[in-house]
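#lab-general

N.A. 3:47 PM
ok so I finally got the sequence cleaned up, no stray characters, all 186 residues accounted for. can someone with queue access submit it? mine expired

B.Y. 3:52 PM
send it over

N.A. 3:53 PM
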Amino acid sequence: MIETANFRNGLTIELDGEPYVIIYFQHVKPGKGGAFVRTKLKSVRTGNVLERTFRAGERMNPARVERRKVQFLYGTAGEYHLMDMDTFDEFVLSEAQMGDSAPYLTEGAEVQLVVYDGEIIGVEAPQTVDLKVADTAPGVRGDTAAGGTKPATLETGLVVQVPFFVNVGDKVRVDSRTGLYVERVE
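B.Y. 4:20 PM
back already:
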């Protein structure tokens, strides 16, 4: 059993029979009344985010979520082919099972397969990924003074806002949790 005092970001708990990951928590001790913990929980199955308040000291079960290292091989027409790095078993996932991770994956990328009660419920991409810029408007000299951004289409089809100095062919680092540009990579 996990108490609210042991909450931390990234902890997976079971709530109403479903696995949830804590993405934000705050211990609140008001001047009047008992202490409580305000949380934002993300469903591991659906990706939905909900806000929930727990009384201080409340206990809940940890979710038995297993993460296995797999390699992304290739994707075709809504199907994604992956290989278990330990057993070398290959399997196919649908777009729904891939979730938000699909636009961040290139061939050969290592990702985490999320398994709950023997059922594959998702794939977690690395926190940051390096992708090549496939298409963007050319940067114009003097545009960088304003510190603005422009849209860029990356090799996987993902569109992100990048600074004006980024050109076609450059590699950029993107945060897969937020979908935002981090830096240009050499």
